[in-house]
Amino acid sequence: AGLAVWVLFALVANLTWRRKYPPVVALMPVIGGFLGFIKGPLNLMMDAYPKYGSVFTVPLAHKRMTFLLGPEVVFNFFKAKDTAMSQKEVYEFNVPTFGKGVVFDVDHLVRREQFQFFADSLKPNRLREYVGMMIKETEMYFSEWGDEGEVELVEKLSELIILTASRCLLGREVREELFKEVYEYFHHLDMGMMPISVLLPYLPIPAHRRRDKARAEMAALFAKVIQRRRSEGRREDDVLQTFMDAKYKTGKSMTEDEITGMLIAALFAGQHTSSVTSTWTGLYMMANKEKDWADCVAEQRKVMAEHGDKLDYDIIMGMDCLHRNMTEALRLHPPLLMLLRYARQEFSVKTKEGKEYTIPKGDIVAVSPTFAHRLDHVYPEPDKFNPDRYLDTNPGGPQGKAPFHFIGFGGGNHRCMGETFAYMQVKTIWSYLLRNFEFELATPPGQFPQPDYDSMVIGPKRPTTVRFKRRKLS
User: How many degrees, rounded to 5, is the angle at CA 456 between CA 179 and CA 343?
Assistant: First the structure.
């Protein structure tokens, strides 16, 4: 028996000894990792990647963050079960904003049910209904523009995006009767999501106090909307109605506060992504008027020759040129710098050079769409805006089209459920603009807007000024 125990001990010791953990970035002890993040996570990655490769660890006081950069090393990050790679521990800072009992305040099984409720509201038959709402909001918004002028593009598109999202997600009553109140509440919720909030979400600072007050007022407002619908026996075609009708496997319905939290989470997820992506898409098309803008105008002419002025779900989703431009804008400027998980179990990765590392249990694991989308072994000429790289005939496309080469909407088990909604929303807006306006950049010559990496969601720094002139495409 003693020999058997000794043999078992030797085997375990050998396996442990054979594990190779990722290299640790050499930084000042204890506070070095935090100083690196203050400098900027992107700068940290750009410094570490040439020295350590695609897998490395940064010490953060008593925690460790391990980076996985590139499609070759992210399979486990995206495909592992929630019991192995968890979102809850790294995204709990959202709880004060979204509320108790939803998303990152519940275990993965309940969260999966809640996400399924949301997915049910984004099925093709529902998206077909939303297109009409988006078109109506778009037409109303741009009807107030003059024949020509200058506008701050990111500001105007952000306003329109929240109008269309409010109508589709929050409901007709909110859009027609309560929009100003909800817009103000959402603004305070948004401003209460600061970098310090990630580490200290309950810190009693003015921005957090305004956030908490707005969250309570938002809950009271939606409670009245829900009660009014139920008392009148009225139903609407929106995400709010889906949440009102939803039932957990236990047969229990969501509470009014949980419905509010899910709506806030949905609005947060969609509003920022679509706002910055619609802006980047437009800016790049305008910067490449002779090629990319002209190609998208030609596509609109072709569509109009076949369908007239009609826009619906199938027509919009069939606009491949506009789709490629939006995808390329997302590749260059994904809204989130990093995606995070908590490793509940250790796992192994293998780099493209053949190096194998064990990622230990307890690490925070980070993937960066921003960094990964600019790797030249995946995307030739990665800093160039080239929508045609997604054509099958173009050698400038993602090399080998490896899984997870494009992670602008995440990937795997937690790929963004709103991806189709986002494409439809942005393409609807730009279809209308391409048909009704001519645009040009009004920023200083040679000064294309740069990304604001200090922001929680990476949009363009201002100015994003553009000149417009109304005209009808024929």
Answer: 120
